[in-house]
Design brief:
The protein is an alpha+beta fold and 154 residues long. 20% of the residues lie in helices and 31% in strands. The chain has 4 helices and 7 strands.
């Protein structure tokens, strides 16, 4: 397996530490451990997204969704009551009911707005809301140097 050294990125960039850390963590993550449960990420609007996770076999109260800092964490675990169930004898278990934790890195100003569970799929709605202070704004152009002087005084 090839390894990629991201050290030059850290030395030659300012303010991109988060991006370099994200790339570093993605490259060092074990691919086999990240395959369960399967998921989709889709863009549903200009500033709207949806993450859909296959959670067959889990009830609503067994699933947890947390948003902290710039990360969305979806986890699920079977409770003792539901794991034991009634006196059933399983001849074949093809539906995976193992506990999991799936982490998604969120871009700046992206937050989860809601989630719903239907037909074994968990849909988490996300929206990107850029604050007014960070949106582009138009700067008026004035003629002459007097306008610049007035702007410095006030």
């Amino acid at each position: 397996m090839r390894t990629i050294d991201l050290t030059p990125l850290y030395r030659s960039s300012v303010g991109f530490d988060r991006m370099a850390n994200l790339m570093d963590s993605m490259l060092s993550a074990d691919g086999a451990a990240q395959s369960y449960p399967p998921y989709n990420i889709e863009k549903t609007g200009d500033d709207a997204y949806r993450i859909t996770v296959a959670v067959a076999g889990f009830a609503e109260d067994e699933i947890s969704i947390e948003s902290k800092e710039s990360e969305l964490v979806i986890s699920a675990a079977k409770t003792e009551k539901s794991a034991n169930g009634d006196d059933r004898t399983m001849l074949y278990r093809g539906i995976a009911e193992r506990s999991f934790e799936r982490r998604f890195k969120l871009a700046d100003h992206v937050r989860a707005t809601g989630a719903k569970l239907e037909n074994g799929l968990l849909h988490v709605e996300l929206v990107r809301e850029v604050p007014e202070a960070l949106k582009p704004r138009k700067i008026a152009i004035s003629a002459g140097s007097a306008a610049i002087e007035d702007a410095r005084v006030s």
